[in-house]
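#struct-help
A.M.: can someone run this one for me? Single chain, 406 residues.
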Amino acid sequence: MRLLRTFYHSTTIIQTFLLYTTTITTLLLPTLTTARPSSPHHLKPSNHTNNYALILQSSVFFHNYRHTSNALGIYHSLKQHGGFTDDHILLFLGDEVACNARNPLKDTILPYRSGGPRTKNLDLYDGHVEVDYGGEDVTVDNFLRVLSGRHHPLTPASMRLPYEMDEGSNLFIYITGHGGDEFFKFRDKEELTMKAFRNALDEMQFRKRFGKVLFVTDTCQAFTLAPNTEENDKPPVLPFDTGSPAPLKNVYTIGSSIKDHNSYSHHSDNIVGHSVLDRYVHNLMQYMGWMDTNTKTGKATSSSDKWSRMEEMSVKEALVDSFYDRDGYLKMGTEIGWTDHGCDVRMKNVPLSDFMVMRRGGKTRASEVGVEVLVEGVDFMQQTTTSMTAAAAVPEVVVVERERDQ
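D.P.: on it. Structure tokens below:
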């Protein structure tokens, strides 16, 4: 027994010494490891030739003020920090909230105010906004026509994505408003379903109208709108064989909320009387940096240095990972959904500059699919073979038959 007691006490002393040594090491090591510089993260940009952006705010009524702030915040960030010009951005605003009679700060959209109602704050609606689709023109039909290129013959070029979009074109789509499980509301009148959106992207892919797409949806149950999921690539269950659908390639999707979860506003304004910004855009701008208070200058503020390093920052880091703190807790109050299913490059390896920095130039070509009816270089693919007689009535119409891609 005496031998056992001696062994027990010796073991206890050794354990105490090891615990003490471990504690000292734990306290000292962080001061050594944090001093080591982190290795730079090199990302390979794609070889695309052009960038385009489609920004959609589909809400009506003054109490949805925050949705206009969301859309215009992304719009000005692309212009100031990404070098986008208005001819490469299509902006949908479902309502003229800035001009609403209930707006106490007329003709302004102010996501933040630091003083009185007329202090020089960031005004997102300062006369340097080019709205392409507004009010009653913000419809599901017009949104899908923009994607597919199936426009009415008299639709001006400023309301289209360019006819020359091809596999060298990257497209950034941001939508904000109200939604639910696999649907997105337009002006409280109609809904865009996930399947209709998927069909539009399938057509764009078939006609080679994009190289990559980044789709960011900021609404309740946002991620249910994701078109590029394994489930959506499965063939339909029918009594006859229709063949498997072509998988959707190189579409990245990020949703500010997941199924059965809401997307929340961040803060309200006591003069406006409503919420003025949603959490997703607020946290993105807090991480990346807001634009200059004068949106026309195009100058970055001192807090926006991350915008100048978009080629070194991945899409996942900026638009997903930045919404979690160091302990892994969400800043949003809801989970963020994301997927890169069907993409050649993982989202964590795609630089943010591939979608949010405008690239112009390079040789582009029109899609050579089927029979196209051209009037001054404009695509009229929305006309089916049954309506070709109507096309014959349009002056100076040339029907060009091209071989289908092999």
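A.M.: thanks! Helices lie at 2-33, 65-81, 140-148, 194-206, 279-288, 315-319, 353-356, 388-392.
D.P.: also worth noting: The chain has eight helices and 15 strands.
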